[in-house]
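Hey, I was hoping to borrow your eyes for a little while. I've been staring at a protein lately and its backbone has me curious. You're getting the sequence in one-letter code plus the fold written as tokens. Would you mind checking whether the tokens look sensible for this chain? Here's the protein in full, and shout if anything looks odd to you:
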Amino acid sequence: MSNSLSTNTKTTNMGNKSTEEMTPEKNKRMCNACMNKISSFIIWSLETVFFKVGLFIGTYPLLTIITCSLMCGLCGIGMKTFHESQEQEKLWVPQSSRLINEKIWVDKMFPQDTRFVSFLTVQPEGNILTPEFLNALMDYYLQSFKFSCRNQSFSDLCLRVNSKCYVSSLLEIWNYDADVIRNLTETDIKLKLWSTPVSPVTGTNVQTLLGGKIKMDSNGNVVFAEATEILWIMEKQEDTSTALDFEKAMIDMALKGIHGINKTYVYATRSFDDEGYGVINQDIKLLAMGFIIVFAFVLLSLGKFDLLRQKVYVSIVGMYCIGLAILVSYGLSTALDVIYNPILSMLPFLLLGVGVDDMFVIMETWKNLSPEEQKLDIPHKLGVTLSHAGVSVTVTSVTDIIAFGIGASTAIPALSSFCIYASIGILALFLLVATVFASSLALDERRLQSGRDACLCCYKHKQPYTFNKCSSDKSFLQIVFANYYGPFLLKLPVKVLVIVFTLAMAGLGIWRAIHLRQDFDLTNYLPSDSYAYAYDHIKKEYFDRQGMETSVYCGGLNYFRMQDVLQNMLERISNSSYIQTGSVNSWFTAFQMHLHLSGTDVTSEEVFNAQLFQFMHSLYGQRFAPFVQFNSSSLPVSVQASYFTMTHSLQIDSQHDVIAMDKLREIIDTAGLPQFHGAHLPKYMCFAYSREYMTCETNKVLLSELYRNLGLSAACVFAVTVILIANLWTSLLVFVCVLFTMVDVCGILEVWGIKIDTASSILLTLSVGLAVDYSAHIGHTFMTIGSNRNNRALMSLKAIGPAVFNGGLSTFLAFVLLANSASFGFQMFFKVFSAVVIFGLYHGLVFLPVILSLVGSSPYLQAKDVPTDRTMDCDEEATNTILVSDHAAVTKNNIELIHADFSNSRM
């Protein structure tokens, strides 16, 4: 009796949803019911939209292709303002950095209007401090003045100091006097080196000109050295063609060699453009070959081996879509004034790989339509295809766009611009594949139904067409996935092995990834077989005692009043462990010494400036003249700007170079000097600046930017995946696969010796979006199939596995030719994307099906069970009305309703 009463009470109260009956278990069931209805509503909405799009495209395929092509052509007009930027400060330096304003000021006050040619002359295990070697060096010097380019010689181009051409070398301590140098003995050379520690011409510390093994006698005097440098400096002209010709002649002379010198290595202003960016531009020809390889693969994969069902024109249109996407990306980005840089040469390879992946998904869905769907007319058949494949393609495309979009917010301009170009390209590719490529399927189906030849469309085959033995209706990959691979993978012992191996691989990846080092060095992008690359490595080997060369610039100070402050600052700089001992070359110190020796009493700023002006025009002070800029060429004068030069001590890596830069800045910033006032000016009246600081500024933010981009990209990818897959648990499993893929990629990069720099940061950021492609397709397909978990995992592999595998393989083929590229950037591109493809396919086709077969979510609701209004009651009865379909498809009744709406809208 009491049980009956209790039951009745419970039944009565259920309708009122009293607090007593709202147990945690019931709350969970109700929440699940809500989630199921929300996810089903999202899927139903997306499928409906894609069905309508497919219905329109299937009805008007030619109109769709022509319209989309014209719109892409209009976007391409933006390329009329196309301009490639190669300026380091615009590409690699964060625009919020203090260095930007400092560089503007330096370029204004001390224009870097110079070009250079540098020779490193080496005598391995041999002494350069011999008469024979110095005579050979003199031959180099004299020969440089004999070159005549466009009726101009080096004398016409050179930067002059004390009326002489600026050429820095050991020869300057003999003032380039050929008669004296030709008659030198070894004793003369050693005596001169002992008595002249500083060059009288340029003020250079003589020992800094010596490299390799250096031996000294008991008195500390140099008696042996293996290498030296000779540097030619030219003034930059408006027409650089003559200077370029001179540099080319000097490069050829160095590579040819000269008698008396074992080996000469050369580097000039033009070298990086020729050897670094040049090889990137040359390797663009690999793009055409990549298109051919991918086209051949797509042609073999999409169609059958007969004259009727081959997909020649579909494959051509697929490549056409990729070309249009590249055009749109370049055109719109250029129109939006997004800078183009040489690294963007990799973008076409990226779009080639990503675009083919989406095509395979659509084609695989087209092939796998049910017998009832195969009987539909072409517009409805295409509509159903897009309704099935559209969600999966949207998941991967949107996550790619989001990942690239996050990268676009980075502080490094080159990375930001690449991500903007990529985001626009991926978006264009997504739209083009869903429209133009889908239209080609409709046209090809018309051709097929009319019995026309796959190549010669005007020719009709006799019906019924006899298919050859090689033209089977069954897909080889589907047979492999369904009958062999899938059943084997989903055996319990294999599942255990896969989980153990995946976790072990992830652990190993984490261990190696934490050892990844940050090091951005622009010279790494020189081809390993180039003369410029050889120069850089020889300089590091033989001149490894020197760090970065830098300068301290000062604005319009009252130098008379600031003498003590400046003196104290220079002493702190000289004593710093981050500055090479004896490398500070200061006009101020030399002038102070001059005043002391001459006994001159300076009592005012006017006297100070007058004495300084006279000192700069004296025989001893002339070498410091370029370091000081006066407001007038005659008395009275005042100092507008000046600078001191110095060299950092050699640091162990790029991160310590950043520390050295910051320590020098700290000494100057805390010296007690006044500040500038005004926009677009440096903050401090004195500041340290070097072109090498641009690399330091990049390295300063590189690691934090990478972590930020990866974190934000991962978070956004997960959010988008949850929304579009519409199931939290499945999205989480897909996200785990993405994380494991990224960990494994980072680990293998460390094993390959790749360091964190701008290019690898770009590629790792892009990899987040690409890694999700392989798992998201499997996860989404799993949710559309109704059965037990094991069968659903098997059916997912059969349905979408071939498309995922072909997409990964085509992506790999798109850039496989880059493996032999001479460009460091392209080689890195190949390595990173190869790792993403390999690990992405493993986690998508091996690990994820195993996990889904064990703990996968329930499938989507059937489309007809989704309420049409937005008020969805989440009561317990809803959980009892869940029906599952074999795919989350638009049912026949819905197709008819949508078609009716479509027909009415046309009327």
About this structure: Confidence is low (pLDDT under 50) at residues 1-20, 862-895, 897-907. The longest strand covers residues 639-649. The longest helix spans residues 413-449. The chain has 31 helices and 15 strands.
